[in-house]
Amino acid sequence: MGYNVGLLGLGTVGTGTAKIILDAVGRHPLLETVSISRVGVRNLDKARDVKFADGVLTDDLDAIVADPSIDIVVELIGGVDTALKYILAAIAHGKHVVTANKAVISRHGDEIFDAANAKGVYVMLEAAVAGGIPVLAPLKQALGVNRINRITGIINGTTNYILTRMKDEGADFAAVLADAQHLGYAEADPTADVDGLDAADKIAILASLAFGGRIQLDDVSCEGIRKISAADIAYAKNLGFTIRLLAIACGHRPDSGAMPDEIELRVHPTLLPAHHPLATVEGVNNAVLVEADPLGEVMLYGPGAGEGATASAVVSDIVSIVAALGTETAQQASADNPLLRWDRDSYIRVAPMADLVSRFYVRILTQDRPSVIGHIGMTFGQHGISLESVVQIDVHDRGAEIVAITHEVREGEFRKALDELLTLDEVSDVPSVLHVW
Ligand code: HSE
Predict the structure, then answer these.
(1) How large a percentage of the chain has pLDDT more than 90?
(2) Would residue 76 count as lying in a domain?
(3) Which residues of the chain fall below pLDDT 70?
(4) Ligand 1 lining (C-beta closer than 6 Å)
(5) pLDDT given for residue 272 in this prediction
(6) 104, 161, 198, 245: which to mutate for ligand 1, most atoms within 8 A of CB?
């Protein structure tokens, strides 16, 4: 029994996917049953890293998704609208789909999974979150028998690379970003990465799996790393912290252990104690820390992007589908394997950020005169906020720089105190406010 794959896109991940499938020796034996029968590209004349038999490459992507001989369509063209069109067309033609596209799934997952379940086909997306690290399959299977209480991830390699270099070199964000773009670690338009949108797409997918419902992408609170300065990184380091862009999905379960009524869902830079396992994740690597009952803490770590790593996740999905189909042809199959299906009916309620209880780091620019620290402490105190530490870090011609770390406080109350702080005569600016783990 053999299975035909139609590949849409032959960029970095498409090329890596083809290389694995075309060189199946010594890998999972089911790969021997998989053939790439068509590859859809925009430009037929472009030089390619992999060689296909005559007639395999085509610029007619509509023909691939409609081809009756193709069992699995692998969407690796990226973007949202065009990818959605081909994914839905493939499903409508009864094809199973594998995609690495977190943006299309986080925005249109409902429509895609409803269509797939109605048609009896699988849609698989291991490569969409944390690149080569197996995360979704473990959450569906081995980890899924636990009650998941929290997922905390470093799931954007570009921002982790930038923050790592800022720490190591004492450099500012803009300079490291420019160099990262020059070296190819950051996109020419870095918005999706540095503003946290890519991580938001990914944590929405993880939360949906962990907490058993659908997520509205707009419910993910999202803050990127543009405002992090070399000063913040240095102060954090002196205080024993490392700054990382974390994506967090967390829910408090009732005593029965049932799914939480609402969850916290957020992406933001965070001061992590330097000994925290996620603080040791450096460069472009990703890591996902899962807190599960009764298992405990499990950290999945590795390359979150790149040709071979992401292709590994894509091909693992192809093999999972082939294994589930067994001896049925794709057309006969009804995609009823509960470990591979994505059944989510109701939406998960997400708590407003104002209700979040967290510690905060705040950097305040003030005049250098008596009682400033006292006034700041009093303003926080009037809002019931207790300070864990206050340090006057620097005095220069523009005044003094004061860094405070609070004890745990409701974010809404903390923000009110900040507004009041800004009305004090002595306070000229509050350039940085960051969550502390
Ligand atoms: N741009 C992503 C990152 C990789 O920097 O992690 C693809 O998800």
Answers:
(1) 91
(2) yes
(3) 327-333, 394
(4) 156-158, 193, 198, 304-305
(5) 98
(6) 198
Q: Is residue 345 in a domain?
A: no
Q: Are residues 58 and 150 in the same domain?
A: no
Read off the tokens for 10: 């032959």
Residue 257 lies in a domain: yes
Which residue's CA is minimally distant from atom 4 of ligand 1? 305
Maximum pairwise Cα distance, the chain: 82
Residues 197 and 48 in one domain: no
CA angle (103, 108, 112) in 5-degree steps? 120
The tally of domains found in the chain comes to: 3
Pairing of strands 349-350, 262-273: parallel
129 CA from centroid of ligand 1 (Å): 9
CA–centroid distance, 242 to ligand 1, in Å, is: 21
Are residues 84 and 156 part of one domain? no
95, 102, 167, 202: which is the annotated catalytic residue? 202
pLDDT of residue 333: 61
**pTM of the predicted model as reported, rounded to 2 decimal places:** 0.95
Residue range(s) defining the domain that contains residue 411 = 354-436
Give the pLDDT of residue 392. Answer: 84
Of 278, 288, 229, nearest in space to 432 by CA = 229
Tell me: the pLDDT tens digits for 354-369? 999 999 999 999 998 8
Helix (H) or strand (E) holding 3: strand 3-8
Residue 51 appears among annotated catalytic residues: no
Cα–Cα distance between 111 and 271 in angstroms, integer? 37
E strand residue ranges, 201-315: 221-222, 241-251, 262-273, 285-293, 296-303
Question: What local confidence, expressed as pLDDT, does residue 397 receive?
Answer: 72
Q: What is the pLDDT of residue 344?
A: 86
Same domain, 172 and 262: yes
- Please name the residues in contact with 200: beta carbons below 8 A apart, sequence gap of 6 or more: 106, 217, 220, 222, 247, 267
Cα of 193 vs centre of ligand 1, distance in Å, is 7
Give me the half-sphere count of Cα atoms (radius 13 Å) on the Cβ side of residue 156: 32
Ligand 1, pocket-test mutation among 193, 197, 281, most atoms within 8 A of CB: 193
In angstroms, rounded to a whole number, what is the distance separating the alpha carbons of residues 32 and 69? 17
Residue to mutate, 154, 156, 160, ligand 1, most ligand atoms under 8 Å from C-beta = 156
348 within a domain of the structure (yes/no): no
